[in-house]
Amino acid sequence: MKNLMMPLLCVLLTSCYSYKKMDVQLGELVKDESYKIHQIGKAPQKGTFHSMNDSLLILNNRRGKLHEISLKEIERINKRKFSLGKTIALPFGVFIGASGIVMATNGGPGSINY
Length: 114
Known about the structure:
The protein is α+β, with helices and mostly antiparallel strands.
């Protein structure tokens, strides 16, 4: 049973969302949608779109803190999208891998342990 705890924990902590590279223009941003903003020379910022004016884009992160990003520093924008492949393939792959490990450590199916 201890052998299955780690793979089950990994499955529970996986995310079914990913950031897809999309051609999102500044005028197409939707309020309360999640985005990842890549800036020139800085780490990307993740958050929900809050507002925008002539020179700044404001993101709201998970902790409720607002981040102001200059429009001149934006390199690209990625939109968060539900990933069906991640939702199905990842738990299935972890299950198959965990089953293989259990079979390998116990001698496999149909083996006789004396």
